[in-house]
């Protein structure tokens, strides 16, 4: 009877000890810094929506830490291009922040995001999409934006050297909001990146289709960068609340531009999220284009991680896309913020199957 009593008492304690030991063993795994898996690979960095970093003064240095890390990793990771999914600021033209939703007026937000990307100027080309928060007074009431003021064509001469095509924005001005950039990968593949405004207008999609169908680009590997594209269920977004009169979201972009193409092979977007839920910030799907080629479509965001919409901005998460010589893309999710200190390095990688995977290109 006494023995049974002690067994009942000891069993929970033993289970607790085993759990703590298992957690300790996991937590003690050595940190491995980002590195290419093959010496002949090269990488592209995908930066999620930075709006929550820039709306609070306390968070702005965290986004600078991320771009500084990219600058320091250009050689070791052979970074050839940086893409940002849009929503560069919380409000495009707002002069009276309440201190709760954010404590920085729009001018300070635009200055902060431009300053952060300046760490890459002259070092590596980057392309930043526009999101709904980058238009209107707070969020896309009308198509006015200060994007061109802070991201003009000559901000980074390396990006300017890649520029091949451009069309007018919603204010009738030629800007990088809708532009095509060409480069040749280290593997010799001709690549074209189409940057499209938030909820692109029909005229923009017509222009983009005309670009990818030009004979000089017909054999290029085309990537589309736009903001609102997939939801967290991996579905093309059909409609949203924004009142812009001429607008196309993911489903319409796919039907009007992506699917009819023969050379669009990847699409990147951002936009989605829910407080402290990584799964709500990501999406992925593969469809076929008119040539029967796979189009891999990825959404990556992090803005409501690290404390929700009013937290630290996204815990420093970004994605490293390693393009290998055998036609695969290795996707890894990494935080320079966690990696900077031995105390938090154990949290610097997200290794779930939806955060660390390979894409086979055809």
From TrEMBL:
Residues 1-27 form the signal peptide. Residues 68-272 form the Calcineurin-like phosphoesterase domain. It comes from the Bacteria. Gene3D superfamilies: 3.60.21.10. Pfam families: Metallophos (PF00149). InterPro entries: Calcineurin-like_PHP (IPR004843), Metallo-depent_PP-like (IPR029052), STPP_CPPED1 (IPR051918). The keyword Signal applies. Keywords: Signal. This is Serine/threonine protein phosphatase. It comes from Chitinophaga alhagiae. The lineage of its organism: Bacteria, Pseudomonadati, Bacteroidota, Chitinophagia, Chitinophagales.
